[in-house]
């Protein structure tokens, strides 16, 4: 053998050994690697208002392997009532724990004005249909594995809070007018927090316009809770004759409040009409 060819032969031999070793290693990895499992877990509303909401679709990835994995690719679309909305994705490169379970959260921002021509009509629905489609690629030692994200279901449509008066209290009566304290209860009928930026409108007592009531910003109403606000109003008898008679004599009078409730960027018409007992 030509001595000059010995280094080339040595390199070739080493290359074959390495290739054989790599092939053996790949085979061992394939035999040892266990298939991860991606399952749908839940759909939940976050940052919900009467104008929009973020719908989080939560998937769970079970990784039975002793090494961590990561996201490689995402192809995802989200539809509500058959209309596509803006959908987000988990950050690429998200680490997936070894020998454990990891949540993959796919958020979608749903603006109700994009779903229905009349938002207040949409808000009367108990639920809305959604559909997710696409796939997610998981980077593994044996290559990128693709998992489908197909899922259909419904989510809870935000409900308009219930607003009603309790018995008003007449704090002071003079010949010219009276100061009346109107207790107002606002109930969040949803299973999630709801922001209420304010409730305001014109008030009538016994058919007479007596002024405007406004709650100011109520902030975030917790799920299923009731907030009570006392709203004082000075009523001028000269401009509200029928109200004057009702307030001077006490007893019952019809109260009507026409206005709006603001939540997020949405104004919802408000019409509260009750027969109330005015007490001193």
Automatic annotation (TrEMBL):
Residues 38-154, 163-277 form the Water stress and hypersensitive response domain. Pfam families: LEA_2. InterPro entries: Lea14-like, LEA_2, WHy-dom. Belongs to the LEA type 2 family. This is LEA type 2 family protein. It comes from Archangium lansingense.
């Amino acid at each position: 053998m030509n001595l000059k060819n010995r280094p080339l032969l040595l390199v070739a031999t080493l290359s074959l050994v390495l290739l054989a070793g790599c092939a053996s290693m790949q085979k061992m990895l394939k035999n040892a690697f266990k298939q991860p499992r991606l399952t749908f877990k839940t759909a939940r509303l976050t940052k919900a208002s009467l104008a929009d909401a973020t719908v989080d679709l939560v998937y769970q990835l079970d990784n039975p392997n002793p090494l961590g994995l990561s996201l490689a690719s995402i192809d995802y679309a989200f539809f509500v009532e058959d209309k596509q909305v803006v959908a987000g994705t988990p950050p690429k490169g998200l680490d997936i724990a070894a020998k454990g379970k990891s949540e993959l959260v796919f958020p979608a921002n749903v603006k109700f004005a994009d779903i229905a021509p009349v938002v207040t009509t949409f808000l009367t629905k108990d639920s809305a249909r959604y559909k997710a489609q696409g796939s997610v690629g998981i980077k593994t030692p044996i290559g990128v594995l693709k998992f489908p994200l197909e899922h259909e279901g419904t989510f809870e449509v935000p409900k308009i809070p219930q607003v009603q008066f309790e018995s008003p209290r007449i704090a002071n009566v003079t010949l010219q007018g009276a100061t009346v304290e109107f207790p107002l209860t606002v109930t969040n009928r949803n299973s999630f927090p709801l922001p209420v930026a304010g409730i305001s409108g014109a008030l009538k007592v016994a058919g007479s316009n007596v002024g405007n009531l406004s709650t100011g910003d109520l902030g975030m109403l917790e799920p299923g809770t009731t907030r009570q606000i006392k709203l004082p109003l000075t009523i001028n008898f000269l401009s509200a004759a029928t109200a004057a008679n009702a307030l001077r004599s006490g007893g019952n009078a019809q109260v009507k409040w026409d206005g709006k409730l603001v939540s997020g960027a949405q104004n919802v018409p408000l019409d509260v009409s009750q027969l109330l007992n005015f007490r001193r």
